[in-house]
Amino acid sequence: MAMRSVRWQESYQLKVYKSTNGGTNWSYLSTIDEKTGAPGTLGNPDKGVYEPHMQILSDGTLAVMYANEKHVTESPSYSQIISEKLSTNGGASWGSEIYVAWDPSNAAARPGMPVWQKMNNGQYIVTFEVCGTQSCNVFTKKSSDGKTWASGIGTQVPSQQGGPYLLSLTDGRVLLTSNANVLSISNDYGNSWYTNDTTAFGNSFWSAMYQTASNEIAFIDSVNRTGGGHNVQVKFGTLLGTYSNDFASNDTGWVRYGGTWTISGGTYNVTSASGDKSILTPYPSKRNYTLEGDIKLNNTGQGSLIFNVTNPTTGTDSLKGYAAGIDSAGQVWLGRFNNNWKQLGLVSTTISTNTWYHMKIVVNEGNMKVYVGDMATPKINFTDTTFVSGTIGVRGGFGNSVSFDNISMN
């Protein structure tokens, strides 16, 4: 266990303690880094070391990252950087400092509060806030071995600010949160992020996340108390990696955008004037999955399943993502929305009104196979990687009525 030990203007130390009985007792082991001296001798203002976070690397090396202000009096000068040190003897001693995150072009940048994980693809990813020059917005950087890091402060994560924490899930997804009180998910190992939902407590600070089951996470943070101060609290949340609904009773979790929606006879029905849609939230998102559902056109027109959806609003093409649908004109089609419409695939086949059609969409690394009726041979096979994450939903047509049933995602 590593921690900061601070006597302001006198002593800044990152100490390591060790337990050999499951945390019942602890003994001092080593000091990772420090800056100490008589009061008034450490500079004005004095600068220290803070916020250690440990990982064990693939080769068994114990590694720690921390926020480091000690380089402010050097040339080049850095107000604060993220540093790393390695230990090959279980934390008894530590090697030379490694620079992880720093801004060579701006000495006032203050990368801090690092948290890092090894992802399923073998890479290491670190997240941190950058104060001083970036309003404490949250950034990430990646490394192939956890020991070598490119220059700079990396890539900003949208919608996150201050005190970040990230978690690599066993299914390959990466979660990230911060003092902004929203949860972001990456399906592509930190290359892109989307905001999924507010966090467990809504108004909280200095959060942490741990995976406690295959489909469960624990969310721990410091929550405002009505009487002043904070409580450290924990809530458990379900990871929606799969989903199913036969609409026997309700559409809980679905958000409607336009149209007139009803649940009757065990089906989800919409009378749609202009491509009206209903979206499942929070997102049960994976990078690779199978989406299935039954569609019935109650009169002439079209209906579709939509997927990898983000930024939905009311309006015909007001979303980002994809749709696969059927049309009574005798068509099965696939298209992409980006607040406009682009057709990606179209085949002719018999589609009748008042007839149920089972549709299956298999998404695999950007490849989309669309099956209708015949589950052995896809009607459409197309690859497009514009959108790799998002939620699912259903969409009506233009001046027609559509029914949906047995929506599932696995």
Automatic annotation (TrEMBL):
<dbReference type="InterPro" id="IPR036278">
    <property type="entry name" value="Sialidase_sf"/>
</dbReference>
<dbReference type="InterPro" id="IPR010496">
    <property type="entry name" value="AL/BT2_dom"/>
</dbReference>
<protein>
    <submittedName>
        <fullName>DUF1080 domain-containing protein</fullName>
    </submittedName>
</protein>
<feature type="domain" description="3-keto-alpha-glucoside-1,2-lyase/3-keto-2-hydroxy-glucal hydratase">
    <location>
        <begin position="252"/>
        <end position="408"/>
    </location>
</feature>
<dbReference type="InterPro" id="IPR013320">
    <property type="entry name" value="ConA-like_dom_sf"/>
</dbReference>
<dbReference type="Pfam" id="PF06439">
    <property type="entry name" value="3keto-disac_hyd"/>
</dbReference>
